[in-house]
Write a structure and sequence with these properties.
By secondary structure, the protein is mostly beta strands. About 5% of the residues lie in helices and about 45% in strands.
Length: about 160
C-alpha cells in the first residue's frame, strides 16, 4: 500500500462573513425606500383612517389597531413627493415609546442586505436626502435607507 505524502500543503484562511442587515424595502411613488426591520412592528393593508382636527396636513388621522390608537402620517411631504389620494399599505413603526404608521404604496420585500451594499451620502446632505442614513444598492436599484430619528423629528403630530 502506498503511503500518503505530505506534499500537499493546505493554507487555512479565516473568512469573516460579511454582516447582513435586515431591511423592509418599499415604494412611495416611483422611489424605493428602506427601513431597518427592528423598527417595524407590522405591515397592514390600509384601512379607514379617522381624521383628527387641527393636525398638520401630513397627519392623515388615526386608526384603531387592536385597541391601540395609532397616528398615521404621510411622509411624502418630507421626501418632496406629491400627495397620494388612496393609501395602499401602512407600515407600523415603534420608535422608543411611540407607535406610528406611515403610508406606503407597496411593500416590496423584507430582505437581508450585506453591509457592503450601503453607500455613504455626501457630507452636505440637504433636501429629501437629509432623511436618509445611506443609500442601499441592490440588484441594479437603489433605495434610500430612512433615518428614523430625523424623520420623527420632522413629523409634528399636532
Amino acid at each position: 500500500m502506498a503511503e500518503l505524502g505530505n506534499d500537499v500543503s493546505a493554507e487555512v484562511v479565516d473568512v469573516v462573513p460579511e454582516e447582513e442587515i435586515r431591511l423592509c424595502l418599499f415604494s412611495i411613488g416611483e422611489e424605493l425606500y428602506a427601513l431597518p426591520i427592528e423598527v417595524l412592528t407590522e405591515i397592514i393593508i390600509a384601512q379607514k383612517i379617522f381624521p383628527v382636527p387641527t393636525t398638520p396636513p401630513h397627519v392623515l388621522g388615526t386608526i384603531n389597531l387592536r385597541g391601540n390608537i395609532v397616528p398615521i402620517i404621510d411622509i411624502r411631504f418630507a421626501l418632496s413627493l406629491p400627495p397620494q389620494s388612496k393609501p395602499e399599505q401602512i407600515i407600523i413603526i415603534r420608535h422608543h415609546a411611540i407607535l406610528l404608521g406611515i403610508i406606503v404604496d407597496n411593500v416590496i420585500e423584507v430582505a437581508s442586505v450585506p453591509e457592503s451594499s450601503f453607500l455613504p451620502l455626501p457630507s452636505e446632505n440637504t433636501g429629501p436626502t437629509r432623511y436618509f442614513k445611506s443609500v442601499v444598492q441592490r440588484e441594479g436599484e437603489a433605495a434610500g435607507l430612512l433615518d428614523i430619528e430625523r424623520l420623527f423629528s420632522a413629523v409634528k403630530l399636532a
